[in-house]
């Protein structure tokens, strides 16, 4: 993070000097975001990015932001950027698995890598090159712009004691996790964020998976459901800034460097913000909402979920050679990096329990 800040300051000094010497053209990029402004951090990240790039470029690069209440399609922003309706889209790529299943890998997959592992894979294990191949087919460039980390498994009105309790359950869960749940008889739904509380309140859904404590409490789910399950479906949860490639290629090299540096800085900030805010949010939950019970899914449910996840991935790999290439890359990297995660961080935490 210190390196990023230093680089930001260096670019700021350079761009200020350059602008003082020449009266250069002002470039404006339009951005459509999936999340409304009131969503913690995810809602404000685009504005932070816009402020940063304008400051660093001394006003030569601006970003105009439209939230879902303006563009009316929170899960359609990738298509808008692809079509050139917007230049940028701030979203999670797994929302678009119906258009291209390979996109799930660049957000997160069930039983996949943790955030630290996924970043290592992306930057040093071939992930960036694979992302360029996949998004290039859509005329887009994908920039990782922060992660919310491990996500919780969802809020349930009734306790899940066995696989039978999942049959027919109306559960809002997106991405590949939803497809895994569907294999076990769940009615998996992709309800838009703005409708989640009302849907849970009116029993349109029986359970909801959103993100983690600070995000979930802001939505009010703890007022409607007592059982809060730990996660398995989104261990990394990377957010993307998707950019129309033609628009980015048309930017001067220094402005493109400023944009890319700002994206990294805002992404690093999101990780820190969500970690801190989750700790703050959870600190008072026992006192303020003693009805909330943190649960883990039973072992037979977890085993069935993992089996279903592997089956889905293998089925997709048989249909799509590029999907298989990414799947093989992630599985191989996970086999390499997970022993260190277990020996390092997990080993430290287990030792403290003694």
UniProtKB/TrEMBL annotation:
Binding of substrate, residues: 151, 172, 209, 234
First and last residue of the signal peptide: 1-20
Matching NCBIfam families: TRAP_S1 (NF037995)
GO molecular function: metal ion binding
Protein name stated in the entry: TRAP-type mannitol/chloroaromatic compound transport system, periplasmic component
InterPro entries reported in the protein's UniProt record: DctP_fam, SBP_TakP-like, TRAP_DctP_sf
Keywords annotated in UniProt: Metal-binding, Signal
Cellular component annotations (GO), alphabetically ordered: tripartite ATP-independent periplasmic transporter complex
Lineage: Bacteria, Pseudomonadati, Campylobacterota, Epsilonproteobacteria, Campylobacterales
GO biological process: transmembrane transport
Keyword match rRNA-binding: no
Membrane-crossing segments per the record: none
Binding positions (Na(+)): 210
Pfam families: DctP
């Amino acid at each position: 993070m210190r390196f990023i800040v230093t680089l930001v300051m260096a670019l700021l000094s350079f761009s200020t000097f350059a602008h003082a010497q020449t009266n250069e053209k002002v470039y404006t990029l339009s951005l459509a975001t999936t999340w409304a402004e009131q969503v913690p951090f995810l809602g404000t990240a685009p504005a932070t990015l816009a402020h940063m790039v304008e400051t660093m470029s001394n006003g030569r690069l601006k970003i105009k932001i439209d939230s879902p209440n303006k563009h009316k399609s929170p899960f359609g922003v990738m298509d808008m950027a692809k079509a050139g309706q917007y230049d940028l889209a701030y979203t999670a790529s797994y929302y678009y698995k119906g258009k291209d299943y390979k996109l799930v890998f660049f957000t997160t997959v069930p039983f996949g890598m943790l955030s630290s592992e996924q970043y290592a894979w992306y930057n040093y294990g071939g992930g960036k090159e694979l992302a360029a191949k996949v998004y290039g087919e859509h005329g887009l460039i994908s920039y990782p712009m922060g992660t919310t980390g491990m996500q919780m498994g969802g809020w349930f009105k009734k306790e899940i004691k066995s696989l039978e309790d999942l049959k027919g359950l109306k559960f809002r869960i997106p991405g590949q996790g939803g497809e895994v749940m569907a294999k076990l008889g769940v009615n998996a739904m992709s309800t838009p964020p703005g409708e989640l509380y009302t849907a849970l309140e009116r029993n349109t859904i029986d359970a909801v998976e959103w993100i983690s404590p600070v995000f979930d409490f802001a939505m009010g789910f703890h007022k409607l459901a007592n059982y809060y399950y730990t996660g398995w479906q989104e261990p990394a949860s990377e957010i993307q800034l998707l950019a129309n490639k033609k628009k980015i290629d048309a930017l001067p090299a220094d402005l493109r460097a400023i944009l890319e540096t700002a994206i990294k800085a805002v992404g690093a900030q999101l990780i820190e913000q969500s970690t801190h805010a989750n700790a703050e949010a959870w600190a008072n939950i026992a006192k303020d909402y003693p009805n909330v019970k943190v649960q883990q899914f039973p072992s037979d449910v977890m085993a069935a979920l993992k089996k279903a996840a592997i089956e889905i991935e293998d089925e997709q790999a048989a249909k799509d050679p590029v999907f298989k290439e990414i799947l093989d890359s992630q599985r191989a990297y996970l086999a390499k990096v997970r022993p260190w995660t277990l020996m390092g961080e997990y080993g430290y935490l287990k030792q403290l329990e003694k």
